[in-house]
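Retro notes
What went well: the complex prediction finally ran end to end.
Inputs used:
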Amino acid sequence: MPSAGLLLQALASGVFLGALYGLIGLGVGLGWGLLRQINLSHFAWVFLSAYITYELKTRLGVDPLISLLFLIPLFGLLGMAVQALLARFAITPFNSLLVTFGITVSVEALLQWIWSADFRRMASFYDEHKFRLGSVVVTYSEALTMGMALLAVGLAWWMLHRTDMGKSVRASAEDPAIATAFGIHAKRLAIWVAGFCAALAACAGVCVALTFTLAPSQIFSWVGVVFAVVMVGRLGSALTPLIGGLVIGISESMTMALIAPTWAPLVAFTVLILILLLRRGDE
Amino acid sequence: MNKIWQSSGLFAVVIVLLAAPYMGLPVHWQSLLYVVFFWVTLATSWNMLSGYSGYFSFGHGAFFGVGMYGMATLATKAEWPVVPAALGSGLLAAVLALAVGAVVFNARKIRGESFALITMAVGFVLATVIVNTPIDGGPGVYLMSVSLPQWGPKPASTFYYASLVLTILCVAVAWWLFHARAGLGLLAIHDDEDVAQVNGVPTFWLKMGAFALSSFFAGVMGAIHALYVSYVTVGETFNITVPLTVVLMSVLGGSRHWAGPMLGGILITFLLNAFTAGESALVGKVIIGLVLAGAVLVMPRGILGTWQLRQHKRLMQKNQDAEFLHASVESVPSQELERPLTRPADSMNRQKVLQVRGLSKQFAGIRALNQVDLDLYQGEILGLLGPNGSGKSTFINVVTGHYKPTEGTVLLQGQSCAGWPAHRIRRQGLSRTYQIPRPFHGLTVLQNVILAAHYGGTRLSDAQAKQEALEWMRFTGLHDKGDYFPDELNLHQRKFLELARALAARPQVLLLDEVLSGLTPFEIIAAVQTIRRIRDRGTSIVFVEHVMSAVLALSDRLVVLNQGEVIAEGSPEDVMSREEVVRAYLGDEAAV
């Protein structure tokens, strides 16, 4: 049985890991719930952003936070462009999965072409410096990830619930036909939502670059866990992905600390299976 | 003629493939074809459940992985010969599928994306378990020491023949399933699972069977592949590549056709092979990704689905031209809405076919049905009336088994069947129609009715079922619409398709849920005559309707529901003049 201090440290790393899960899950969940798209390319954008951050830092010494400033609008535009293209076709949720899988495979190959299949790790100020929070050691990267996740969730919630545009988006997600009858331009809104999701992917990419080792093949290793995070919450909701992320992040890191690191994936997927099975609707 | 060409062509291909290694097919071609057979088997087996029934599984890699590790364990630790080990691995995969299915298919809400995610999670869970237990333990398992038989002229031919034979079997089973009664049931599940069940399809067991078959083939293929690569690791086995590639191949080829996955598998494998090594492999990957994205956008039904649709449109065009040439005046029904002269004699003396006692249905807080008693006599048309929300539809849904009753008994021809699943009640001789027609959109009119005939009370051969279907289509005037899809019919015809489907099961009791609503007066007259003819053939009818003229013309007896309770019962003239009935319909003032 590990000591209390070690457990506390594990809890903290679970929280920060969960925040990153939540940040990625937010983008996937919003697209799934509001656009009825299961967007695998979200993971491709995350890694593309991470690699660009890495390249700028190691080649030109650009601080990741500065990269973030222009990555957000860049990826926003990318997301909008892809949505504008997808909107020309009638596409079922399931087929959206296949289309975005195709995009993801292409991006993966592209990343491998440019950066090779080797593992790469970005050294940065934020990962090397730590501060203490009680007995827990926190790196600046972790704190940044947490901050960004909270900010993104807060912004998404505020936009969905406090702005006219957000309310229109929710109405349109609930009943597209009726929403259109009330004068809501669903296609234009969908482009904005897609742009927002892709901008979230850019943020998450910077966080991934700050704390994780990068390899093109790693794109798919995030898919399962993030889907679990999204399903723990409610599709299209702003708050629940973060909660789901924390639940799974903490249970994973506790499993690592208490049992063995290799058992960690079991937790996320057992949670996913149980939630899907137990959440039965009415008859 | 077309069919003969097709099957002799396929036969020729099989012969050539079987003979090829002896005709000097180079070893690298045998290896390439092994990869083709590998993917065709995996994609075709995936399609047996997922393509036909629409339950898209992302867990095919899990069953494939069970096969790989089954072989790795059985052939090394247990030292089984390879053929029994391969079959055993397939059976293991099938057993796992049945276990997963028993849980997942019992949870009603698990459909679409949820099913995809659960099956995907099964793969990850399995991988974690295998890597942490002695089955693997982490470093992977070597199969070099397993002794292989030599089939064919060269050592490499063994894998060629093993995979070829498995592919032939797998495609043959997929073909058989597609054309069998079970395949029709699976396709119906794809379109509307509830209606499939109401039409007598035992949905749970069909899905279980298809899942087990599908996983069996994936497992055997995995077992062969374990020997082929001779070194099995969790990372290479349980990644997302297998499930996604398999889905991709099927969707690209057309997942609602037995040959779709085969076509998609061949195309993609050769495409991948065109870019083999180094940089060009990456270029190939980029291109494949984009081809997939583009193909799904442009042809969401896949290659074969798009082709079928074009064939169908051409046929429809031809039909229309023919109809235009032989435009005939629609015959006008001569009879008006009047009572038949011969009214059934005293109903009390006759046999009760349906006997409902104390039937109640409680939804969270709302009692939709409260202690309803109702009898239906042989050869009777019973009008079931009541204002909106009075419980008529709930009554139908409970009696047909869509909802389980909270309390009460239902005797159908003396057999107590309250709480039975819908398909058993259907087979016991009770059919229904839906107020808003719910045909299977992906099946033609003829297939819709054949399905109902197949899953009715008696077991029919394919030819008999088709005969039966054609008879009822003629009865409802749909005989020349067999090749149409339901969406190409008008409302009147779709309502008659509901009728034909209900009748094709040869029911003793027929529940008609507002068949007349939305029809023109002219169409109502025709429909009323049809209903009378149904009764004349010996079927007893419960008739829920708002069109009062039709109710009075048709009904031998009326039962009136209000707020879930029976408030009146008797002959039409008597019931309609009762104060409580008038009050229920028109409000308190009107009754004064």
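What we learned: The longest strand of chain A covers residues 130-133.
What to try next: split runs per interface for comparison.
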